[in-house]
Amino acid sequence: VSESDKNLRSPICCVMGHVDSGKTKLLDFIRGTNVQKGEAGGITQQIGATYFPAGKLREMTKGLKADARLEVPGLLVIDTPGHQSFTNLRSRGSNLCDIAILVVDIMHGVKDRTIESLDLLRRNGADFIVALNKVDRLYGWKTCGNAPIVEAMKVQSRDVRDEFERRVSGIIGQFEKQGLSTELYYKNYDVREVTSLVPTSAMTGEGIPDLLLLLVQRTQRTMVEKLTFSNQVRCTVLEVKVVEGHGTAIDVVLANGVLREGDQIVVCGQQGAIVTTIRALLTPYPMREIRVKGAYQQHKEIRAAQCIKIAAHGLEHAIPGTCLYAMGPDDNLEALKNSVMEEMESV
Ligand code: GTP
Ligand code: MG
Ligand code: NA
């Protein structure tokens, strides 16, 4: 079945985990950016989003010679903060995603925010894989660039491999205490019951092809129904921000459907439902983080899944974390406003 027959949207992948485990840095490595360095105190304080087109995923995974038949148009990746004060943002991220990467620092193992993230993902029934990040910090690690992890392990000394095995067993034991069975992904023959661990380095790149390939394969194989494109708009507000030349805008994640310039939308506001018209639909360039100021592409229409800046009148008091509704030909404005008000009461 070809891509066009299946008509899949891009999966949404949320990156979660303890503070400083390397979530943002992993995305920096894939993007070829330096977002983490620009963060105040090196701490992520907002939800981020980046779109990775299929072509880039193909290029990043070709070292695995997996004939990665990509049936999805790309991957939309959501970055979340690991600092303890941002539980609400982690919760929002875990609600949005089709799949998640739970990042663990291999030198530190399972920590408080690892467990909190795990609980959030389980509560939402979200599928996830675990990245065991910072393998380059194993004493004596030989850098192999973005080689598949099995290749990278082959050139390591006996001592490095022993330390690796020891730390991995320790982490498997820590997850076991949380009631989660885990195994290194290349030894995992029961992917339905056992969560895969992917060793990675966000500094030197080992294991990153494995991580991307696993995400894409897992979503394509097990979530076809969920990922089938539908015209029903599903959209969540992330942030309210001023965009130079466009006034107040909202950053949103469009999980399904299409949004067009000129569409009438209904958004949850602090003083009630906001009814407005999309004036501009902007996206960062592919492989660029939406929360970093930069150049934007302007579109007449955008298909899910994407992260978008929507400029429109009256968005100043929009409430992050709530749904955005688009008026379709069969929709009733009063009914949409009522849905928004109901949601507001539950926020
Ligand atoms: P928060 O978003 O604040 O929770 O942190 P984070 O999980 O996004 O981690 P971040 O990307 O900010 O990385 C934290 C620190 O670890 C930075 O100094 C990174 O340079 C470093 N780091 C991240 N990944 C790696 C890695 O794979 N190897 C090494 N050696 N350092 C890493
Ligand atoms: Mg971060
Ligand atoms: Na950090």
Automatic annotation (TrEMBL):
Name the source's superkingdom: Eukaryota
Q: Kindly provide the name given to this protein in its UniProt entry.
A: Eukaryotic translation initiation factor 5B
For this chain, the family text in UniProt reads: Belongs to the TRAFAC class translation factor GTPase superfamily. Classic translation factor GTPase family. IF-2 subfamily.
Which part of the complete sequence is present? Answer: 207 to 553 of 1104
Kindly list the places in or outside the cell where this protein is found, as annotated in its UniProt entry.
Cytoplasm; Nucleus
Q: What organism, scientifically named, is this protein from? A: Turnera subulata
In this protein, which residues make up the domain named Tr-type G? 8-224
